[in-house]
Design brief:
heterodimer, A: globular, B: mainly alpha, 3 helices, 0% strand, transmembrane (chain B), transmembrane helix (chain B), membrane (chain B)
Chain lengths: 476, 98
Amino acid sequence: MTQALPQGRLYESQKLALWYFWVALALFGAQILFGLLAAWQYLDPNFLHGKLNFMTNRMLHINAMVVWLLLGFMGGVYWFLPLELGREVVGIRLARFAFFTLIAAVGIVVLVYLLVQYGPGNAFTLWFITEGREYIEAPRWADIGIVAVMAIFLYNVVATALKAQRITGVVAVLMFDLVALAGLYTAGMHYTPNISMDQYFWWWVVHLWVEATWEVLVGSIMAMALMHLLGTPRRIVETWLYLEVALVFGTGILGLGHHYFWIGTPEYWLGLGGFFSALEPIPLVAMVVHAVYDAGVHRMQTVNQPALFWAIAQAFGNFIGAGVWGFMQTLPQINLYSHGTQLAPAHGHLAFFGAYVTAILTVIYMALHQVRRPELPRFDSKLWKWAFVLMVVSIFGMSAAMTVAGFTQTMVERAIGGSTWQAYIDAQQHPWFQNGMVWRFVFGVFFLVSYLVLLWDVLTIGRGEARMAKEVGAHD
Amino acid sequence: MTSEAVRDLMLYGMLMVSAAGFYAMFYALGRMLGRPAVVAFSYLFAALQALGALGMILPPYLDPFWKYLIAFSSMVYLFIPQGMWWVVTTFHEKEHAH
């Protein structure tokens, strides 16, 4: 039995999704702010020394990104799920409780990062300050909380599907993915004194969690988004989703092996990891053709222009960030020299932006359309174009600057200098590296400006038309 | 491996995959707009893609396993745009026929 709502009205789950989106956007701003501080500290290492050190800024920059993307995904699912299943999400109170718990936990963890930062390295530190693993520094209590929130999220999706007596292909993929999403995160909580084993588990979270479960999650969300945005038939969307899942698991999981090259794992990982990583760009190139086809069929026109542009940027961004920048350094013969240089963040910035940020912005614009003026023939503004162009240019600028700096490190520090301490210093003082860091900061400032433009647009788009319509209605 | 070899491998690798992407994009665009000139232009990027692969394969930097892998990838890239175009259009036509 479905409960379709009249046009313009929202499900409770969709109202909750809006909260997720707003907090996600706020954390996006925090990510940029801490990233800029860290970028400036490359230029002036004494800046805020002892007060807000580089390691803290970097940690907050990366953790804010992980959390806001996760919130954006959850918001996306809560937005589309009732539309997909034709009924309100089961356990909406539990969902609200999970949302506020997660936000409170994030607030406490950020305060601890800012005010306490690190501890003596005993069990107390691990449980209440930081777990110490790069990128997944959250203390153990917060880790358990994240898994619990994910479990609630999974329950809501499964229970809603069961109650609606309807499991679509997209929802089925989503359910399986959420099991992995909650499960794989626990790998980051294992402790072992063997550093190689420890790194295995660490990469499961940092890469497998992101590479496999996030890719599938964003695939499910984009599948639902494309059906509503472009009216793409379900059969096409679901077939592509199955294909994507196959490709992600086909090349992505064993492609993870490129991170095992230098952690003391058996030598066969060089071949396995390299082989599957080298094949990873192939499906991404194929998806470029599909993106061009979709954009061409609709002549770049839809009722929601910003959402369409961000959706197209998602297909191309994924290819360039993950495909081109990933392949450039994935062969072990190159990775031996490039691993851990600025080439890694260049790849990371482009890939995360291309694959995930664009997807969440697509969904946010779709949600805003529904909230502000669902009956509008065109949901449009002038500002979103500025935000779009500025953001794309500045992320490319930042990544290009880091690529130049990383290339310098690869050559001067590793290939020529042989990774000695002196070679490290030589690379850090090389003009190409230093100029790269300057341009990274400059484009970071552009990115902040583009974020502010985006935020203003998100706050205002459609509001003018809504007001005008109300006034016309009043006079009528 | 020399520093020159590392540099060459990186640059040729970047050329190979990015040119493959541009090839796919211009090929699909040309077919979409019905402009053979754009399709012909896309073949320039197919050639660049193959050039990138050759730049990695011909010098003696890599072992045979990696050379075969890159040659295989390069061959696949050459046919992805046509193959995907066929898949996408056939699929959509079937859907609209229903």
